Amino acid sequence: MAKKIANKLYYCFYFVFTLAFSWLLLNVVFANRHFSYNPIWVLLLAVLWGAAVYGLNKAADKASFFLQKREKLCLCVALAALAVTELFFYYESATYPVQDFERVYTGAYNYTIAGIIEDPYLDYFYKFPNNLPITVALQFVFRVVYKLGITNFLVVGAILNFACYAATYFFVYLCCRELLGVQWGFLALGVLYLCVPLHCYISVFYTDTTTMLFAPLALYLYIKAVKCEKTLMRLATFAAFGIALGFGIQIKYSVVIVVVAIFIDMLINRRFKMLGLAAACAFGGFMLWGAVFSSFIYGHILDKNIAPDKATPMISWVMMGLNGDGTHNAPDNYIIWDKPTKEEKSNEAKRVLVARLQEYGPLEYIKFLNQKGVRSFGSGNFNAGSIVAGAPFRQTFMVECYTPGGQYYNIAEHIFEGYHVMLLSFVIIGSAIALKRRKYKCAVPILSIFGLYLFLLIWEAGQRYLLNYMGMFVIAAVFGVYNYVHAHCHCTSAFDTPIKSPREGTI
């Protein structure tokens, strides 16, 4: 009876997801007024990308015995190839951080060298304290290497970025390996590797890159917890879950989406004891890291007496998300900053928010949300052009590809968009096949993607926010390929009758 209810809930969710994202993809390709893509070229390139992924799958299938036998060696080679690629992109992108990236980097740099952050950077952190945890983490690393005589902090930041990239790749691999097998783990590595715009963020250390690893890490820990037969081991796994995810949520609040997705999956599958344990660990980890960061921030950087009144309230981003195309709108900030106290800032944001909702009306608001979804998911470049290539040291081939107006910018944009459409297509195909066969093997990535979609409908829109959930997009896309290739897949949830890899536990 419980399994039937779970299957019905999954059926309803997969139906809504497939319908919503099919409509979204159609709008992204054919009604994308926010980005100037040629639909024919995008579709052609998406087909070519899909053929490349299918070819990778065929190659992985033929080499499956070797991949299983030499799993560690192959994984090391894959990560080494990633390191070489990132080194190439770091050199060719020749980029200095700009916008919020620059403020975080410079704030950490100033605190490391001078022991203090001064205006205008201090004022920025008073207004946007959500960026202080990443600044604190970055300056801690800077201070360690500074004592060793290392002063090239741009390189240090790039190395830290690579560590986050490598960890993301590793946990994406482990998730697919645990659920599908070794060859599918390597396919996931290949699909993630082909995401070119992701590589160009190597020189920009910020919340988007540092939190990419937490979504696949959370899923992997959940998989291991479900498979644990010993209570003590399960407790230890969820303790690690809470500590890791608590840190990730402090760095970027949208990390909570994957936590909620996992909780929903537990709830649907009636894992109530596990849900209580996971929720307690996640809350405990969040509070623990919150206390650590707050102690440092209010002890060394901000004045606790004036900080609450200067901070921009979270509801401001919801208000901002109702203006124009839903993206960041600087004048909206000044509407809030003109108010002297925290309460007045929040009240003003609520007033403007309600006024904008009333101005839209129900029908226009629905149309606006549709276009806001397209604005967020409409491009696969992660806004790399205006952010990453904003201040190049020198002109290179890669700068010409990333910079708006560059010689190869239009060609590169269509190539990136073709990959993006291919990835979304595989996600939708996997969801549609699971819906048709009523066999729901791994719901957490799909739940996470849908949660991100809903979040961006109410928050500030922007394709850069897709970056820290790339792991989930790739896992869901690999499941799409798997569902298409394997018609005999017959699991009813993420972990009922889990598929064990041939050498489980070797990594």
Can you put this structure into words, describing what you see?
- This protein has 507 residues and is mostly helical.
- Helix 8 (153-179) runs parallel beside helix 24 and helix 22 packs across helix 24 (470-485).
- The longest helix has 36 residues, at 342-377.
- The protein has helices spanning 2-30, 39-62, 64-69, 71-93, 99-114, 121-127, 132-147, 153-179, 182-193, 196-199, 207-210, 214-227, 231-251, 256-268, 272-301, 307-310, 315-320, 330-337, 342-377, 384-387, 397-402, 409-437, 444-458, 470-485.
- It is globular, with a radius of gyration of 23 Å.
Low-pLDDT segments: 488-507
Number of strands: 0
Q: Give the overall form.
A: globular
Helix content: over 70%
Number of helices: 24
Q: Strand count, sense and closure of the main sheet?
A: none
SSE string, helices as H and strands as E:
HHHHHHHHHHHHHHHHHHHHHHHH
Pairing-aware structural class of the strands and helices?
A: mainly alpha
**Strand residue content:** under 5%
Radius of gyration: 23 Å
Termini separation comes to 37 Å
Quaternary: single chain
Instruction: Write down the overall mean pLDDT.
Output: 89
